[in-house]
Amino acid sequence: LPCTTIGVVKNNPLSKQYNGRQKTTFVFDVYSIKLGDRFTKAEGLAQAVLTDREVFNVECGDILRLKGVLSVPPGPTNPGGFNLREHLLKGDIYAVLKIRGNLNVEKTGVSKYSNFIRGIYRLKRFLIRIVDLNLKDDYAAVLKAMLLGERQDIPSYLNDSFIRTGTIHILPWQYTKFSAPAF
Length: 183
Fold this sequence. Notes:
This protein has 183 residues and is an alpha+beta fold. It is built from four helices and seven strands; from the N terminus they run E-E-E-E-E-H-E-E-H-H-H. A five-stranded mixed barrel has the order 1-3-4-6-5. Helix 2 runs antiparallel to helix 3 (137-148). Residues 175-183 have low confidence and may be disordered.
């Protein structure tokens, strides 16, 4: 469903490079949606997925206008495989908004209540850079997971080792129900 949405970024965006393109994902609290030629009030969380050649600098608390395609999160593609829909529903996220190209993103402001949260996320990004600069890949990934809940850099073989040895619980999973204050 092609649409334009207005809302606020509710978490620390995650940017990764895939096939020469940057993919940035974040939780987006939708305030209004434009279907056709007019905006109507909306309410709810969506996972925004922005892809482009360059990273678009998005921060928690940014108020954005996004043009993209809104859809229901897909279920598992293989029996017993990862179920994105169930994963997102745990965080009360009921939609995926795919945005192709930074030209479809417009910052319109910053939430007045977001300075403290933005500061916390900036500190977290700073700590991640310090860890990455001072430790080798696998060691950095484990330390970031243990201290900051950032598990996405843990290689699958290492994650499987934690599961096999029954020690996966020492790597906290940060993606649970979103609990930051309303902006």
